[in-house]
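Researcher: Here's the sequence for the chain we discussed earlier.
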Amino acid sequence: MSVIRNPNPKIFFAAFLLLIFFSCDQKKETTTNGDNERIISVSFSNVGGKAGSYSKIKVNQDSLYLEKGTVSSKEHIVWKHAITAKDWRQLTSHFDIKTFNTIKSSESIQALNGIDETFQIKTSKTSHVYVNAYNDTIHYKQLQKFKDQLSQIIPKEYQ
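Model: Thanks. This is the structure I predict for it:
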C-alpha cells in the first residue's frame, strides 16, 4: 500500500478549471461611439496679409514644427522642438472631441489682404479643418487655450 494518498479527482478537476478560468485573458471590447477617439496631431497657421506673411505650426505627440516667414522679403525661419508626453497632454487637454463637429468656420479674408487663421485637427477617426473659427465665440475657447499653451512652449523670437 502506498504512503501517498491520491487526492479526490473531483477537487483536482475543479481546481484545474478555476486556474484555466482565471488565467485566460478576455479581449477588451472596442466602442464605436467615439469614446476611444484620440488626437493625433494639431496644425495651426496664419497666412496672408499684404507682405504675404505666414506662420505654420504642426504639433504631434512627440514634436513641434514651426515655420514662419514673409514672401515679400524672402524671410524664412524653421524651428523644431521635441515635446514630452506631459507637454502633449497639456496642449490637448482643453480639446473636447465631441464638440469638433459644432465648431463653425468663417469666410476667408485673405483675398482682402487679411490673414486667415486655420486649424487642422487630426484624430484617430477623422480630420477637422477650421478657417477663422474665432468668430464662433462659444466653441473657439478650446482652440484659444491651445494657442495659449503653444505660446508657453515656443520661444519669443519665433512667435
